[in-house]
Amino acid sequence: MKTIQKLYFILALSVVLNGCGGGYAVTRSVSDYPAKPESAHIEVYAQNDKVPRNVEIIGTVEYDDTGFSTVCGYSDMLLSFANEARKIGGDAIKLISVQAPDWNSSCYRGEAHVLKYFNGIKNPTRNALENPASKPEEPPVESAKTEEEQTEVKSETAMATVLKNPVFVAVLETVSNDVIQPNENQFLTNVLREEAVKTLDPSLNYTIMTRENILAMLPPDKTVEDCEGACLVETGRNIAANYIVQAVVNTFGSSLTITVELYDTKNGKLMSSFNAKKSDLDSLEIEIREKAPQMFQQVLKIESSQEQ
């Protein structure tokens, strides 16, 4: 009788110990490259994405359910793929298959190739960062900021801490419910993303996620348009972003309005926001360029304080 009780105890303890765990990943490496640091960025290519020609497949990763997994969502699977890719010196992962939770398992399961760029050169059309320096120069926009204000922003950025772990910031597509045209939505999004890159310097270990990164990391049954407002936090967690930002354009009388909100996905708090009412799109662009840097400064302050 005591033996049976002991067996039940061991089984129960095993469930408790494993129940809080995630899925497990199995990697098959076909090349010998040095491992990369945990802070190294790993590009993510979705199943339907075309990969660049200058890549080598150096391994395959499978992600499955342990049988007791509870932390095994879509973003958990992608993070596991990225960790395994770093271990074998990969630069990117290409999803081969993705299986959503079903009656068989409550976990996402899947398989991905680990890719290595030849000579470390990435595909020029798919950068890990939306770097304005790689784009054609845009005409300068007049700013209402004083020289003193501009100097203050630059000095704060210069004094920011180099982070030990990468911080990912997602700038979602601008939502306007057809108030403005799709290409105008995209342009305002690009302006907001550009200001994020200027303020959150990549050399400090900040990564501004590209449009392709965001789409690749969303669950297969979700689109960026599925969530806005309070649901932004959930979307940010789905794509493994630390912070998420979105602009919403609407109308007020004969004027255009814009609301931009920045959320911390860890605690769901609204960290910063700004609103404006303007007569045209050019004025909305100027408003973003003037106020977005101050918004992203909040991220610098928070992350710098946590490193100290």
Give a structural overview:
By secondary structure, this protein is α/β, with parallel strands linked by helices. Helix content is 33%, strand content 24%. A hairpin with a 2-residue loop joins strand 8 (243-252) and strand 9. Helix 4 runs parallel beside helix 7 (281-307). It contains 7 helices and 10 strands. The chain has helices at residues 2-19, 74-87, 147-158, 182-199, 211-217, 232-238, 281-307; strands spanning 24-29, 43-45, 55-64, 92-99, 109-117, 167-171, 206-209, 243-252, 255-264, 270-278. The protein is globular, with a radius of gyration of 22 Å.
Fold blueprint:
Elements: H1 2-19, E1 24-29, E2 43-45, E3 55-64, H2 74-87, E4 92-99, E5 109-117, H3 147-158, E6 167-171, H4 182-199, E7 206-209, H5 211-217, H6 232-238, E8 243-252, E9 255-264, E10 270-278, H7 281-307
Parallel strand pairs: 2-4, 6-7, 6-8
Antiparallel strand pairs: 1-3, 3-5, 4-5, 8-9, 9-10
Task: Provide the structure class.
Answer: alpha/beta
The helix fraction, in percent, is 25-40%
Q: What gyration radius follows from the Cα positions, in whole Å?
A: 22 Å
Mean pLDDT: 75
Question: Given the C-alpha coordinates, what overall shape results?
Answer: globular
Short description:
This protein is α/β, with parallel strands linked by helices and 308 residues long. The protein is built from seven helices and ten strands.
Jot down its keywords.
308 residues, alpha/beta, 5-stranded mixed beta sheet, globular, disordered N terminus
